[in-house]
Amino acid sequence: MRKLTLLLVGLLLVSFQYTNAQGAPDYNGGMKVKLNEDGSKYFRIISWAQIWAQHNSDRPLDANGNEQSDLNFSLRRARVLMYAQINKRFLILTHFGLNSLNGDNLSPTGKGDSAQLFFHDVWGQFTLTKDHAIGGGLHYWNGISRANNQSTLNMMTLDNQRQAWATIGLSDQFARHMGVYLKGKFNKFQYRLAINDAVTNNLQEAATPSPGGAAVYAGRRLLGSKDAGRTYAGYFDYHFLDQESNFLPYKVGSYLGGKKVFNIGAGFFFHPKGSVIANTAGELAGEDVSIYAVDAFYDAPIGGKGAAITAYALAQFSDYGKDFTLGRTYETGSLLHGHLGYLFATEKATKFQPYVQFDSRQIDAIDDNATSFGIGINTYLSGHHSKLSLEYFNTKYGNTDAISTLTLQAMIYL
Q1: Residues of the signal sequence (predicted)?
Q2: Which end of the chain has less Cβ packing within 10 Å, N or C?
Q3: pLDDT at residue 297, as a whole number
Q4: What φ, ψ does residue 142 adopt, rounded to 5°?
Q5: Helix (H) or strand (E) holding 231
Q6: Strands 177-186 and 189-197
Q7: Closest-CA residue to 161 (of 170, 153, 152, 172)
Q8: Is the confidence at residue 368, as pLDDT, over 50?
Q9: How far is residue 358 CA from its own chain's centroid?
Q10: Strand partners, 295
Q11: pLDDT score, position 26
Q12: Which helix (H) or strand (E) holds 283?
């Protein structure tokens, strides 16, 4: 483990030197194509990729009882997003890609499920007034928290807090619901509200509740779409300092000193009869799924030489039904999360940002806690558009042994 850590750090330092020697072009607005002279008619394309090298010495034996490699490579994300306007009254956005492609799920001819591109977002939006709009489709205008609306283009930590994406694969398709939304702002107060259909075939599509046992997230499938097919979500935040854009739903992870932001937010997700339990006679009954959260985000420059601080805190309370757990990822209980990063002052193009993060989760089903701790550093070669990240992450779930992972990420987005 120590040798691998030194090797990864060495590779990181070599790449810093190489990039400083080569330099990096300014992003300058990205790939935006103007369709008229003043640019009011346009389409914009964004493409990004995140490549991981990950070391984990605690991987279980494979299906044949063999030890697995400690070091693995993966394509964490590969995405393309495009949106367009031909006037201010409406907008269309399309977003597709793939996630977590690795040696275990690659296929010989690229036709396996994991290698397929799929739609993350496809939604259209109509302007109601200058500050308010309504839209619909497969969308990311989520409730609960800032973290549940997190952009993957500009995260400060290596990845998002996983439990904060609280409905992935349970009521939605990869954090996107099919439905309608209303979004807007009143001065410094921003809001987003949505009414959506829940998915029928989710991560528990083959599960049924045991008599007297824990809840299963299968309301729409087992009770029908009339009683258990709809979800409701909202997120509200007040912007005390600079106002953030709500043109798109994706929340920024770190502005790298580009803004002075302090927001406090609160949100919810509600799925009537989303989960199902069975009594001792095997009779089914629905249980409401409700998730609530409050959070705060602070991001600001320090001094006048490029230093900046980024901080985020989240308290989330999740009720998926009686003693619900799924894959050590989802559980009825509560979550406290925080992360803090500091961007060092420098006049050079390459910037360094160390950070720490901590989670504490209370889990009803095991009457115990799960804790996670992470420490990492980002090296920005051209802001978020070209960066390298190195993170050590440790998780302990209940009374099981802690699992540690070391990840090196290379990311580019244009």
Answers
A1: 1-21
A2: N
A3: 98
A4: -95, 165
A5: strand 230-239
A6: antiparallel
A7: 152
A8: yes
A9: 16
A10: 265, 314
A11: 53
A12: none
H helices of 105-162, in order, are: none
Q: What are the beta bridge partners of residue 122?
A: 94, 138
pLDDT digits over 217-241, tens only?
Answer: 999 999 999 999 999 999 999 999 9
Of residues 292, 282, 276, 174, the one with CA closest to residue 228: 276
pLDDT one-digit tens code per residue, 4-17: 444 444 434 433 33
Element (H, E) at 228: helix 225-228
- From the list 308, 294, 183, 296, the residue with the least C-alpha distance to 239 is 296
Distance CA 407, CA 52 (A): 7
DSSP 8-state code for residue 285? E
pLDDT at residue 29 in the model: 59
Write out the two tokens for 234. Answer: 């909202």
Tell me the pLDDT of the chain averaged across its residues. 92
Per residue in 112-163, pLDDT tens?
999 999 999 999 999 999 999 999 999 999 999 999 999 999 999 999 999 9
Q: What's the rounded mean pLDDT across residues 20-26? A: 38
Tokens of 206: 């083959």
DSSP category for residue 243: P
Amino acid letter for position 214? A
pTM of the prediction? 0.92
pLDDT in tens, 37-77: 888 899 999 999 999 999 998 888 788 888 889 999 999 99
Give the Cα separation of 48 and 26 in Å (integer): 16
* One-letter-per-residue 3-state SS of 293-304: EEEEEEEEEECC
The residue type found at 384 is H
3-state SS string over 53-101? EEECCCCCCCCCCCCCCCEEEEEEEEEEEEEEEEECCEEEEEEEEEEEE
Query: Rounded to 5 degrees, what are φ and ψ at 369?
Result: -115, 160
State the sign of the Cα–Cα–Cα–Cα dihedral 84, 85, 86, 89: positive
Q: How far apart (Å, rounded) are the C-alpha atoms in residues 49 and 53?
A: 14
* Contacts of 248 by beta carbon, 8 Å cutoff, 6+ apart: 83, 93
CB 318 within 8 A of CB 170: no
